[in-house]
Amino acid sequence: MSVHLFKPDVEGQYPDYLRDESRRRGRADWISFAASEEDIRQVLLYRHAITTQGARTGITGGAIPDGGHVLNLSRMTRVTGMRLDSARNEVFISVQPGLSLLELRKLLQTCEFDSTGWAQDSLLALEKYRRSPFYFFPPDPTEASASIGGMVACNASGACTFGYGATRAYVEAMRVILADGSRISLRRGRERAIGRAFSLQTEEGRELSGRLPDYIMPRVKNAAGFFVSENMDLIDLFIGSEGTLGIISEIELRLIPSPECRWGVMAFFPSEAMAVDFVKTVRALPFGERPVAIEYFDYHALNLLRRQKRENPGVLDIPSLPQEYHTAIYLEYHGGKDPVSAAVAELPERMTVAGGNSEASWIADSDRELERFKVFRHAVPEWVNRIIDERRKKEPELTKLGTDMAVLDSELSSVMNLYRDALESMGLDYVIFGHIGNNHVHVNILPGTLSEYQRGKDLYLQWARQVIQWGGTVSAEHGIGKFKVALLREMLGDQVLRQMREMKRVFDPDAILNKGNLFA
């Protein structure tokens, strides 16, 4: 074999590959670093249980091994081709799964592609791209070091999902290696289910046939379980499947023209109810007047930032946050200069009607100022992780408890009240922030003791059951991984989970791929 195997050791080589951003640790017998599609196939010849890893930025334990073999794809970082579609005004770029989002953004800006081995039509497309205005890849998870393969595997989203949608909308084609080493090529619009029946053919000539599970997807932003629907495009079955059906070896991404300008607005309100009313007003606007991002920060989140600014004044480059700033809503606008300027000019009146103070808002109309807002957004989860790391010194088993649920528009006020009333009555330490435009906020419970941790887990389960009754999802963004398997069971039930397992067996008969993800 050309691919080498290494023994992961907690104290010696490769200990980081036994964990991800969830701060938990697994175990593995071997680890290998694939550099090509053929390397992936060689590893699969061993028939060991395989845990696939990219950049390990997930927080649901999907990349944590539970024995067996770790197959790390972080060295598969090449851009393998490009094509232009002038009629659609779109650019398509093919990448290996280990390429990071950060590196992709850099390459699209600098055009410094390594085009070694590219086909002639890709080289011609690259020359045209260099003479064209910039294009970009809209998905924007908080962690820009995430790998593209990982983003596809969990259908990653982020702040701008409100305007642009999640990763799924930008995947045009992919190659997948199945558990037996056989290969499938998929292209959007080409392979489709007939009702709930599907059939795919591998490049080696084997036919794979089965039936999609019978559940109906919730009508909310959703990352819980397989994407299924009548007559669906079968490429979508693999997007968000968390590595349980096959290993992605190449992805073609759709890029769109970069907006002429980007503006950000941070609005402050004296209460949560006023902030929520403002959100409802803004997202009900006509399409051309709506922002691409609507983000939420509660009083506890603002207090964390106040504390960080006080203790680390040189790190957090934002203006002061007066105590009367109770709740913040961040809006980001993309588009032409005139439409964006007009939309922002309407905001002060809308803030005032909702009870906010338009004179206290912050506005960013340059890349430098927008970067400060991104620091603001990202500082909250970073500070939460720091608090938990400090508390774990006394209680090593502690982790934060972070919700990832979403509800229908009609239930936004109800779910916010549900969270707040329970947390206050139980006296738990917490922070709420996130993607309120999609009715999807992150409630981070910060336990100080194992007793508080258990109470927080019980509360999380109660919330999940209520959200499910309201037609929502237990995971809107981060996926299920290994940590939310019980919540997926609550949401879908045992019968649907059996159907999901049966479908998985079509692609992975011995269940060796990413053991523990989605299924107990």
Please explain how this structure is put together.
It is built from 14 helices and 19 strands. It is an alpha+beta fold. The protein has three domains: 5-72, Uridine Diphospho-n-acetylenolpyruvylglucosamine Reductase, domain 2; 79-257, 2-Layer Sandwich (Uridine Diphospho-n-acetylenolpyruvylglucosamine Reductase, domain 3); 261-469, Vanillyl-alcohol Oxidase, Chain A, domain 3 (3-Layer(aba) Sandwich). A seven-stranded antiparallel sheet has the order 16-13-15-14-18-19-17, with helices on both faces. Strands 5, 6, 7, 8, 9 and 12 form a six-stranded antiparallel sheet that branches. It has a four-stranded mixed sheet with strand order 1-2-4-3, covered by helices on one side. α7 crosses α10 (347-354) and α8 (299-311) crosses α11 (367-391). The chain is globular, with a radius of gyration of 23 Å.
Report the biggest beta sheet as strand number plus sense, adding barrel if it closes.
7 strands, antiparallel
Tally of separate helices: 14
End-to-end C-alpha gap: 33 Å
Low-pLDDT parts are: none
Beta-strand percentage range: 15-25%
SS class: alpha+beta
Named CATH topology of the largest domain: Vanillyl-alcohol Oxidase, Chain A, domain 3
Task: Identify the CATH homologous superfamily of the largest domain.
Answer: FAD-linked oxidases, C-terminal domain
**What global shape is seen?**
globular
How confident is the prediction overall: mean pLDDT?
94
Topology, number of strands: 19
Would you identify the CATH architecture of the largest domain?
Answer: 3-Layer(aba) Sandwich
The CATH first-level class of the largest domain comes to: Alpha Beta
Radius of gyration: 23 Å
Helix amount: 25-40%
